Description:
This protein is mostly beta strands. Helix content is 0%, strand content 71%.
Amino acid sequence: NPSLSPEVSTSYQAGALWQFNKRNYLDVNVFYNDIRDLIQTDENNSTVVNGIAVYSSENISKAETYGVESVLSNQLSARLSANLSHTYTKANNRTTGQPLTNKPEHIVRLGLDWQPTERWDRAVRARYQSRELAASAQSFVGNSLQDGEMSWAPAWATVDVKTSYQLSSLLRVF
């Protein structure tokens, strides 16, 4: 999109870290972002090339995001650690009053890291993401949505398992 303006934002963040002991901490941050000309996918002007929708970008004149990020970490033993994090985000188009698309309200992560030997690392990561606005009638052309209606992508979760082995000081395999 040749008429796309650069995104400009003013951000504020404050946080605190509570170190309970050498093995446990809680980190909490609050944030606010005032955004002008937010760059977002233009749902109104897609073209189809070989059966695939191709989108361009557009500017949202005024937007804001705000929320809280928190992390709780625990070193369970010399070789085992766990962490839990949560991000709560509100994201609004300040011109229309609607939520911004593709911005979930909640993201939760849980991780477990284990190093059974000096060379082996193993990890399990779980992630949950709440539903997010996929489209609204004002940003969606050629659909059955009525003015003011919204279409939501469902919540989802994943679990990833990782292992790696240090073959030498210069080579690690995954």
